[in-house]
Amino acid sequence: MNKFDFKNKTAVITGGAQGFGLDIAKKFLNFGAKVIIWDVDKKELNKAAQKINHLRLSFEAVDVSNFKKVKNATNKINKFSKIDILVNNAGITGPTTKLWKYSSNDWNKVLDINLNGTFNCCKAIVPLMIKSNYGRIVNIASVSGKDGNANASAYSSAKAAVIALTKALGKELADKNIAVNAVTPSTARTKILNQMSKKHVKFMLSKVPRGRLLEVEEMSSLVCWLSSEENSFFYCCYL
Description:
Helices cover 46% and strands 13% of the residues. With 239 residues, the chain is α/β, with parallel strands linked by helices. Strands 3-2-1-4-5-6 form a six-stranded parallel sheet, sandwiched between helices.
């Protein structure tokens, strides 16, 4: 396993109480970072806190779809620390159904968390990174945002917008030591599979050339490199 130096770095990971976010948090901690996990699920936050139990790890229940709550949580951190790394991982898939059967409430919820949540966190944290002239932002998008998957119109639309947001913000910050990138994982072995029908999971897996699920460790290793000082050139890319 590659090793990175995250000593004296502070990272905020949204949706970090489980899945990709939790594994990313563990790796950041192993490499010396101070990690703050934001997650709306208090039950999962408590589980993660007990599971990791690390002095450099802290948690807060934050609804990323609410800018006021994101801003308040950001201000709390800013009182005692800079924010060097932001991983926008919070997301939901929403119902697996045809577009015309989607309820407006479900559609808005998926976009609020996946897209507006990413926007809110960047809006609150980027000014702090600009002030310190350093930052690494990794937005967790999806291959669905590139392909546009049937029966996942809201999720596909939100993740496509996250890719576009990444490109726009990366170019806006290109003259600073702030890298903004997105990763577009295919179907992975996480609890998010529980939000999809078995038929849809099988369909997603059929599109993967390797014919297997992505493992969270593979994903978190990529995020670590994109979040490190070694990544001093790449920005507004999606991998």
